[in-house]
Design goal:
The chain is α/β, with parallel strands linked by helices. It folds into 4 domains: 131 residues, Jelly Rolls (Sandwich); 60 residues, Glutaredoxin (3-Layer(aba) Sandwich), CATH 3.40.30.10; 192 residues, FAD/NAD(P)-binding domain (3-Layer(bba) Sandwich); 117 residues, 3-Layer(bba) Sandwich (FAD/NAD(P)-binding domain), CATH 3.50.50. Helices cover 27% and strands 24% of the residues. It contains 13 helices and 29 strands. Strands 13, 14, 15, 16, 17, 18 and 29 form a 7-stranded mixed sheet that branches. Strands 20-27-21-22-23 form a 5-stranded parallel sheet. A 4-stranded antiparallel sheet has the order 1-8-3-6. Strand 25 and strand 26 form a beta hairpin.
Length: 554
């Protein structure tokens, strides 16, 4: 989650007036119709970290103390909120679990605005809504930067599993902190107490997980619901990258009932981009995570429902249900029904044919470059394979920490696949060296201890070079995430990308009626963030046409 004006660290004190604004009587009067008056006695708990939050509280009388509490029970005060101030953070837009505790310091009277009414308030009262949303976002950013709330990851900080969960939580805008069991005696004792656990996660609600998957952690934190969704959605969007989020924003803002699913996090490949400098309207650039975070909040503001992480395993396109719906099956067995489906599942970087590659994934082999990986590369020589924009952004970003970045490309240069501004940036960086006509051929080290070197070969001379790189980043080509469409009749091209606009259909509609494709997963897309967002917006017009046609037939 990025803050409202920049994607660097925020200065809490200088922006405190935006984080904790005081509403006037006129503002409160405007909110009255969206909420219900509640009364609490001194010492009562209004909301508790790890439990579903009831919505936004506006203090009418008395004071409420806000504190943050981590999974080990450590408590730190944040603020005391009085008359005219409101209590919530961005998770309350969608009724997720609270990240902080709120206790009445004295008898209090509050106006409780539940999540659905909070969204209605933000849309109906635009100027007031802007102040509220800014505060909600800044509060989440502050919690992430403080690292004193949310789950506690207990294990060696250089562990692949710790890094995996750090990346997962960070990409989903969720606060956490790490206890290094090699340096902290209490952390080491906890690991020993749980036997063979390599990693423990203490959730704010008190539950302790051993070596959890991302899905298990998400459920412990209440990031994703477990209820059956029997309702019929107008649009189900599979994939929460820029294309999927754009579709969600435009569809939900126009009154359609929308659900968004992604197997890992919002943002897709773009969400891992260190800085996008050629996106319209951001002359100084913006990180992919910041752009995706804003779109994620924006979609929820308009009422789009988010199921992240939730893996889609198949789709039934037979429309055999009583309402002629498309049926999406999740890995956990749940079924979701929708009148239309937007395929926005994107593409993943290919695994090059290098021996022992899987042995080192998460242990020196990376398919993204976040701040976590950048810290590991401090003062090291590293290698990066790939010549596209994502590779260029990662190379420039990592060069700020690494002693040297070796960029390996199979072609003669970067000109064929990388934007000129990134090429110029790479050429200007003294610690980035380009290796044309070069391919990675072998990796060195042991899976337990991690990667400790790599070898690449010059295709022209056949010469090989050994490099002591402990971290290698792979941004090689793309394979579409379309395995879940098997058996549904959606036509793909020779590389597996979804074909659209066939036989007189609208440009973004697939071979199956009512199923659309946008972004990187679509055959012929431009593979750029701006293009993906444009396709997401354009798809909504086609969805409306399809829905209106279906209604007229009915």
């Amino acid at each position: 989650m990025a803050n409202d004006a920049t994607d660097g660290p925020i200065e809490i004190e200088t922006r405190r007036h935006q984080m904790f604004p005081t509403l006037g009587e006129a503002d409160i009067a405007r909110i009255q119709r969206f909420g219900t008056v509640k009364n609490y006695k001194r010492g009562d708990c209004l909301f508790k970290a790890g439990e579903v939050g009831p919505g936004m509280f506006v203090v009418l009388k008395g004071k409420v103390a806000i504190s943050q509490r981590d999974g080990l029970g450590h408590v730190e005060p944040i603020a005391v909120q009085g008359v005219g101030q409101f209590l919530a953070e961005v998770g309350q837009l969608s009724g997720r679990t609270a990240l902080v505790d709120g206790h009445a310091e004295e008898d209090v009277e509050v106006l409780l605005v539940p999540p659905d009414q909070l969204r209605a308030l933000i849309i109906a009262e635009a100027d007031l809504g802007e102040r509220v949303v800014r505060a909600l976002i800044l509060r989440r950013v502050a919690l992430m930067e403080a690292g004193a709330s949310g789950p506690v990851l207990i294990g060696p900080t250089d562990s692949a599993d710790v890094r995996r969960l750090e990346n997962f939580l960070g990409r989903n805008g969720y606060p956490y902190h790490v206890v290094d069991s090699t340096q902290d005696a209490d952390g080491a004792a906890m690991l020993e107490q749980y036997g063979e656990a390599q990693l423990l996660v203490a959730c704010p609600g008190g539950e302790v997980l051993m070596n959890p998957t991302e899905d298990a952690l998400a459920r412990c934190l209440g990031m994703v619901d477990t209820i059956e969704h029997d309702e019929l959605f107008d649009v189900a969007i599979v994939g929460a990258g820029p294309a999927g989020l754009a579709t969600a924003v435009y569809a939900a803002s126009e009154g359609l009932r929308v659900i968004v699913l992604d197997c890992r996090s919002y943002g897709g490949q773009a969400g891992a981009s260190a800085r996008i400098e050629n996106y319209l309207g951001f002359p100084t650039g913006i990180s992919g995570g910041a752009l995706a975070g804003r779109a994620y909040v924006q979609a929820q503001k308009f009422g789009a429902e988010m199921l992240i992480p939730a893996k889609v395993v198949s789709m039934d396109c037979s429309r055999s249900g009583p309402q002629g719906q498309l049926a999406i099956k999740l890995e956990d067995g749940r079924l979701l029904n929708a009148r239309t489906v937007v395929i926005a599942s994107g593409a993943r970087y290919r695994r090059p044919d290098v021996p022992r590659l899987k042995d080192f994934e998460g242990r020196g082999i990376w398919y993204w470059a976040s701040a976590i990986e950048a810290r590991m590369c401090a003062s090291q020589e590293i290698a990066l394979v790939g010549g596209g924009n994502s590779a260029g952004q990662a190379a420039v970003f990592l060069s700020q920490q690494a002693a040297k970045v070796n960029v390996l490309v199979r072609g003669p240069s970067l000109a064929a696949s990388m934007s000129r501004y990134l090429i110029d940036r790479i050429e200007a960086a003294p610690n980035i060296e380009l290796h044309p006509y070069t391919e990675l051929v072998s990796l060195h080290g042991e899976p337990v201890t991690g990667l400790n070197g790599a070898t690449w070969r010059d295709a022209r001379s056949g010469d090989q070079h050994d490099c002591p790189a402990r971290n290698v980043f792979l941004f090689v080509g793309a394979e579409p995430e379309t395995g879940w469409l098997e058996g549904c009749g959606v036509q793909t091209d020779g590389h597996g990308f979804v074909c659209t606009g066939l036989d007189g259909k609208s440009p973004l509609e697939s071979s199956v009626e009512g199923v659309f494709a946008v972004g990187d997963v679509r055959s012929g897309s431009v593979k750029r963030v701006g293009g993906a967002i444009g396709e997401g917006a354009a798809a909504v017009a086609s969805i409306h046409q399809h829905l209106s046609g279906a209604q007229s037939v009915a």
